[in-house]
Design brief:
The structure is a homodimer. Chain A has four helices and seven strands; from the N terminus they run E-H-H-E-E-E-H-E-H-E-E. Chain A is of the alpha+beta class. Chain A has a seven-stranded mixed sheet. In chain A, a hairpin with an 8-residue loop joins strand 3 and strand 4.
Chain lengths: 173, 173
C-alpha cells in the first residue's frame, strides 16, 4: 500500500546500568527534556559537561538506561534524597526520549527505581519537584503508590502555561 | 554577691557578607549544628572542606554572618532554590551558635534573607526540609509569613525523638 510509514515498533524496554558508551544518547534525551522547559527545573542552557555531572551518579547512587537493543529510550537516576538524618529516604528522576513516550518506558524506569531503593534499604522515596501539569508523571506516580505531600504554588515557569505548581510526592517502601 | 556568673550580654546582631576570615567561627557553628543531627539533613561526618563547599555560596547567591563585634553569632546562605524554570523561587538556610540562641539572631538572619530575595527579584522563598520538631524554626517561619505546604512523614531521623517529619514551607515575596 505505501504512503504513511509507521515508526519502527519499540520493543519492551530492558533496564541496565548506564555505561559511558550510552552518553551521546543520554545527553540527547537530557538536552531535549531540559530545553523544552516543561518538566524539569534545570537550566535550559546547561552544557553537556554540566548535564553529565548532574545526571550521571556515582555509587552508591545509580544511573540506568532503558534500552531496546542499541537504542536508549529513557534514563533514570536514583540516590538518597538528603544526607545524614535524612539519608533513609531516596529520590529518583526519569527522562524518556520524545518518540518513546506513552509506551511504558517511564513506568518501567520508576518500578526499577522503587525496587532498587527497597533493595538498598531505603524507607521511602520522595519526589521534590513534579510539575503539576506533567499529567503523565503525576498519574504514573499515583498509580505506583505515591501520595501528594503538597504543592508549591507557581514555582515552575512553564513556557506556555505560565507559572504552575511543583508537587512534592512521597511513598513508603 | 558573686556565685553564678552571667554570660556576657550579646548585643543586637549586625549582618554582613561572609568573608574568609570568618571561616573558623562559621565552621564551628556548622560543625556543631551538623553533629547534633537535630535540625539539618547533612552528613554529621561532613569534613571542613565539604562544609565550606556546601555553606559558602558564590554570587549571585550569598552567605552572610550575624556578628556582634568580632564574634560570629550565626550564619545564613541564600540562593535560587532550583534552576531554569524554577529559578524565580529562592531558598535560604540559617544556623545560630549554641550560646547565641533565643536572642533573635535567627529572626534577623531570616529577615535579611527575605529582603535579599525580594531585592534580587525572586517571587517567593521555599524551605525544603524544616524538621518538624524544630519548634523555634517552625514558629519563626510562620511568624515571618511562611505557610506549611506539606510534611514528608518520618523523613528525618532525630537522635532522641526517632523519625520525625520534614516540613516544606513557602511564602510569596
Amino acid at each position: 500500500m505505501g504512503g504513511v510509514r509507521s515508526p519502527p515498533p519499540i520493543g519492551p524496554a530492558r533496564i541496565r546500568e548506564y555505561a559511558e558508551a550510552d552518553w551521546a544518547q543520554v545527553w540527547s534525551i537530557v538536552r531535549g527534556v531540559v530545553r523544552a522547559q516543561e518538566t524539569f527545573p534545570y537550566d535550559p542552557a546547561m552544557t553537556e559537561e554540566q548535564a553529565h555531572l548532574v545526571w550521571i551518579e556515582r555509587p552508591p547512587a545509580l544511573t540506568v538506561v532503558a534500552v531496546d537493543g542499541p537504542r536508549v529510550l529513557g534514563t533514570a537516576k536514583m540516590s538518597a534524597n538528603r544526607g545524614g538524618p535524612g539519608a533513609h529516604v531516596s529520590t529518583a528522576s526519569f527522562m524518556v526520549a520524545d518518540d518513546a513516550r506513552g509506551r511504558g518506558v517511564g513506568e518501567a524506569l520508576c518500578r526499577f527505581a522503587l525496587d532498587w531503593a527497597r533493595d538498598a534499604g531505603f524507607a521511602g522515596m520522595q519526589f521534590n519537584a513534579v510539575v503539576e501539569t506533567n499529567r503523565a508523571a503525576v498519574d504514573l506516580y499515583r498509580r505506583l503508590g505515591f501520595s501528594l505531600i503538597g504543592t508549591v504554588p507557581r514555582a515552575f515557569a512553564h513556557p506556555t502555561l505560565g507559572r504552575v505548581g511543583l508537587h512534592i510526592m512521597y511513598r513508603d517502601l
